[in-house]
Every structure is written in C-alpha cells, then in structure tokens.
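lol forgot to send this yesterday, sorry. struct tokens for the thing we talked abt
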C-alpha cells in the first residue's frame, strides 16, 4: 500500500509581509491542518529558525556537529541549491527543540512570536550568526530561505 502525501497548498511568498498576511488570515478565519502541526506550532517553529541567525543556533551534540562539518564540505552546496530551486520537502530532519509542543503555544501566541521575529529581522543591521550547516548567510538569502520554509509549513494549513 502506498502512503499518499497530505494535502498541501502551493504557496509563493515574495516578502515577509506576504507571509504574515497569510498567517494572520489563517489565524482570523480558521484552517484545517493536513499535517501534524497547529498554526501556533508552525509559527513557533518558523520564528525559532528566523531567530537563530540573530541570537544563536542550538548547540548540537558533538556527533551531529561532526556530521554537519562533513556535510558542509560535501553535500550542502547542492542541498542549498536544491532548496532554493524547489523549496523545502517533507520528511527533512529538524532540531526537536525548534518545534513547540502542541499545547505550548496557542495559535495567537505563535503568530505573535513570528511577527516579533519578523520585525527584528527586518530591522536587523549587521552580520548574521553563521548556520552550523549552511555557514554564513547574508540577510536577503536568510529571508529567502525563511520564506521557502514558511511556504512548506504553512502549505499544510488550508484556510476555511
């Protein structure tokens, strides 16, 4: 038996404001989740990954850091090009601490957290903290990656 992919919207955000407009609409009008997360969880997760380049990334255990180092030297350039060309795909690993528990954030709290970090990123001047996997990323590229990340997760939430 072949497992079917969950229903997913095809989104294209050009700006963080467009992303936040979709988030606010989902929060105000309701949604059906075709994935595993609520709007609050998705927003909290997106906020965490947008916050890390500003405040610092979680420190992975030593074996994972070693794997990241090898990956940076081998597969990451191709992986980065593929994400930029095709977006994020389901089933990719993420840092467990980046995903809020379902009862940890209400939808409104997640939206508020995401808006807060969007405001911070928009106002940020200077060098971002390098990613443990992707290395140094300029602010415009970080925003582009964040928008692709949001398209992926918010795509599983269908507006009512």
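and heres what i got for the seq, position by position
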């Amino acid at each position: 038996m072949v497992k079917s992919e969950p229903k997913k919207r095809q989104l294209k955000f050009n700006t963080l404001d467009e992303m936040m407009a979709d988030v606010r609409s989902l929060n105000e009008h309701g949604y059906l989740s075709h994935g595993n997360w609520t709007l609050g969880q998705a927003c909290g997760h997106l906020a965490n990954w947008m916050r890390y380049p500003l405040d610092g990334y979680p420190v992975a255990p030593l074996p994972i850091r070693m794997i990241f180092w090898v990956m940076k030297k081998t597969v990451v350039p191709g992986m980065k090009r593929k994400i930029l060309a095709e977006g994020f795909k389901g089933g990719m690993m993420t840092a467990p601490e980046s995903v809020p528990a379902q009862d940890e954030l209400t939808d409104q709290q997640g939206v508020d957290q995401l808006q807060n970090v969007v405001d911070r990123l928009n106002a940020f001047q200077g060098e971002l903290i390098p990613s443990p996997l992707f290395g140094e990323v300029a602010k415009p590229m970080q925003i582009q990656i964040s928008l692709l990340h949001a398209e992926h997760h918010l795509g599983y939430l269908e507006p009512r």
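The chain has a mean pLDDT of 92. anyway ping me if u want another try
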